């Protein structure tokens, strides 16, 4: 569904990605893992078009989307739950959800306000609250709900459970599992390798702006040295 081939991305004159190549399969969960500062978010920024790559190719459903602006990438059907959640603080929960809503993937069973409330019942009594009146967990549910309201074909979560309490984290993992079961393709970034391993079909380890290893959860578990070498665990 999504293919990155030799993607090189810079911030000004500083090169951060040195030829990222990876493939996301339809209906599967793929992860990007690696220590801080290795280029995971920059890979996401390159896909979304917020930091366009200098070279390489990014194909989504066969179309070259490399360098296309973020709103066009979103229209093609990629929904992002960004690092730090980026909830609009002075919009209500309802407004946050409907402000950017669209059915970009032309789904027949599309996400709407009712469906998001059913999926995240915690948000229902908060519909009138402002974005800055929510707990971290509620904000993350809102950020996921907002991305789903775009009816994406691919959902990307950058730091899916960062800073959340264990119970809330578990709730987010359960919801992501349900989204996977519904057939959604998901790209996940998170620091909790054990939780990622339960849900993911394939992992890519990123170090210094390049893919240094790829494999499934069993292969990752079978090579504990990877964790100390590349993940600092
Ligand atoms: P983290 O988990 O800390 O976000 P990451 O793997 O997602 O780590 P990136 O955020 O992609 O890493 O950062 C990769 C490198 O690019 C780092 O060295 C970082 O300092 C640098 N970098 C990130 N954003 C910018 C920016 N806006 N301008 C300049 N350099 C940046």
CATH architect. name: 3-Layer(aba) Sandwich
Number of strands: 10
**How many helical stretches?**
9
Average pLDDT, all residues: 93
Helix content: 25-40%
In short:
This protein has nine helices and ten strands. By secondary structure, it is an alpha/beta fold.
Task: Describe, in plain words, how this protein is organized in 3D.
By secondary structure, the protein is an alpha/beta fold. The chain has 9 helices and 10 strands. The longest helix has 16 residues. The two termini are 31 Å apart.
Reconstruct the topology from this structure:
Blueprint: E1 2-11, E2 14-24, E3 29-33, H1 40-48, E4 55-60, E5 63-64, H2 70-76, E6 78-81, H3 93-98, H4 113-119, H5 136-148, E7 154-158, H6 166-181, E8 185-189, H7 193-199, E9 202-207, E10 210-215, H8 217-222, H9 224-231
The chain binds adenosine-5'-triphosphate.
Characteristic key phrases:
single chain; 233 residues; alpha/beta; globular; binds adenosine-5'-triphosphate
């Amino acid at each position: 569904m999504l293919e990155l081939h030799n993607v090189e991305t810079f911030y000004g004159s500083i090169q951060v990605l040195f030829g990222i190549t990876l493939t996301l399969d339809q209906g599967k969960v793929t992860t990007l893992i690696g220590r801080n500062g290795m280029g995971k978010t920059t890979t996401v920024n390159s896909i979304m078009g917020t930091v366009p790559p200098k070279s390489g190719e990014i194909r989504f459903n066969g179309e070259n989307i490399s360098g296309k602006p973020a709103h066009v990438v979103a229209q093609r059907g990629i929904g992002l739950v960004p690092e730090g959640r980026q909830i609009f603080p002075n919009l209500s929960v309802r407004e946050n959800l409907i402000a950017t809503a669209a059915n970009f993937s032309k789904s027949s069973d599309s996400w709407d306000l009712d469906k998001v409330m059913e999926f995240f019942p915690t948000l229902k009594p908060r519909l009138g609250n402002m974005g800055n009146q929510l707990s971290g967990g509620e904000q993350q549910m809102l950020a996921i709900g907002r991305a789903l309201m775009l009816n994406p074909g691919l959902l990307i979560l950058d730091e899916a459970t960062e800073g959340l309490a264990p119970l809330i984290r578990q709730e987010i993992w359960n919801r992501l599992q349900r989204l996977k079961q519904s057939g959604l393709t998901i790209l996940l970034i998170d620091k909790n390798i054990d939780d990622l391993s339960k849900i993911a079909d394939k992992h890519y380890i990123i170090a210094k702006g390049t893919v240094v290893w790829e494999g499934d959860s069993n292969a990752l578990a079978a090579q504990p040295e990877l964790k100390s070498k590349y993940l600092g665990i």
